[in-house]
Amino acid sequence: MAGFQSLPGFRDFYPEDFSRRQHIFRTWRQAASAFGFQEYDAPVLEPLDLYKTKSGDEIEAQLFSFTDKGGREVALRPEMTPTVCRMVGAKAGALKRPIKWFSVAEFYRYERAQKGRLRAFNQFNADIFGEAGPEAEIELIALLIQCLAGFGLTKDDFSIRLSDRDLWFFYLEALGYNLVESRALLTAIDRYEKAGDKAFDEFKSSLSGDRLEEFPHKVQAITGFMKIRTIEALVEEIRMFHRPNLNARLDDWRKVLAGVTAMGLGDFITVDLSVVRGLAYYTGFVFEAFDRKGDLRALAGGGRYNDLVKKLGGPDLPAVGFAIGDVTTGLLLEQRGLTPAYVTAPDVYAVIGGEPERQAAFADIHALRAAGFRVDYPFKELAFGKQFKAASESGAKLALIYGGDELAKGVVKIRNLTDRSEREVPRDQVVASVRETLAAR
Ligand code: HAM
């Protein structure tokens, strides 16, 4: 009979996998705390309505949703953003601003499983509420860089592609498109990397007459805009239009780039207007982190979403944030050889003669554990040779030897398993002696 397996796209974390995941979470938490962000958590199961229309069609189609026994329409969370907006919105008056929050949590999307994409994955989310200016973007982009640099990754390993949905709307307006048309065009731009010019076919089919005729020129302008990679080229392109809204956006771009550069992080950032983000709620700057060399999917994504708190019933509260995923991050660390070795070695392994000695050993083993040392011992009586083999295989630094002769003298033998040196210590000084021996190594 075939045994049970985990569901497609869900992972078991055996201890070695778990230790890798812990390393990732620990690095993220360290970065967030250095930046003064506060950790929160939230329910895994939410009302389905929280995601309907707010997150966008793609995520809505991927929801793990069902009707619960009380007849409620519910969904496993596919992302944190609507939840954190609900939480902050409900207490906005009482929270000191700017509100800088982060979380590490599991999310669920019914995606086609592929490299870097699963159905259950973890994200680190960081968001700032209550700051409308680009200072919030600077802080978050710097945090995102530190969340990856904390593993030892450098500017040669990853980059942050910075883009701007506001700038796109103003640019498309300057090209003669209204808001509805611009939205449809941004959806096409989002698909462009995969589909090429075909991405515009659907939009094109809605056009006729002059507008259809001039469309190839417009597509040229749009794809040209997508290919801009420097702030100088962006300024040059925008200057031609003489539009105050476009120029005002450029001031914010300069502030973000100057701030990030002043932090010494300028080399991590590229201007890349091909990034528009699939999620529906973004309103201004958007950004994604990518592996520079490989073919991995995005490491992280985020942006400004000034309307979402209000849309979910809260006050008018500007917001910006991002999420990094553990799946692509883990793949990148593996590719770069930055996965730490799996270590669970005890500090001390107790080698125990027989049953009477076991009672004496137990007293010391527990005293050592209570003092914070990692201590292991064999459950069953074994020959000394086998126990020493187990001690050295465990990776322990010291063996404590509880033989009949030693106990008769009121001592325990400490053996340094690296250089094999031994000394006897009085039983009532075992904890202090272990501490001393480990410190001296
Ligand atoms: P997102 O781009 O959908 O943004 O996801 C962010 C990151 O989560 C991705 O770059 C990827 O690393 C990871 N991720 C997403 N889906 C999967 C999956 N199926 N399998 C593995 N990893 C995945 C958001 O979720 C926004 N809520 C981020 C945000 C926070 N915006 C503002 N605040």
- Domain unit count: 2
By CATH's scheme, which homologous superfamily of the largest domain applies?
Answer: Bira Bifunctional Protein, Domain 2
Strand coverage percent? 15-25%
CATH classification, class level of the largest domain: Alpha Beta
Structural summary, described in words:
The chain has two domains: 15-335, BirA Bifunctional Protein, domain 2 (2-Layer Sandwich), CATH 3.30.930; 348-439, Rossmann fold, CATH 3.40.50. It is 42% helix and 19% strand. The protein has 17 helices and 16 strands. The strands form three sheets. An eight-stranded mixed beta sheet has the order 1-5-6-11-10-9-7-8. Strand 3 and strand 4 (73-76) form a beta hairpin. Helix 1 packs antiparallel against helix 4 (135-149) and helix 10 (231-239) runs antiparallel to helix 11 (244-262). Bound molecules: histidyl-adenosine monophosphate. Histidyl-adenosine monophosphate binds at residues 79-81, 109, 111, 117-118, 121, 123, 125, 127, 279, 298-302, 305, 321-323, 325, 327-328.
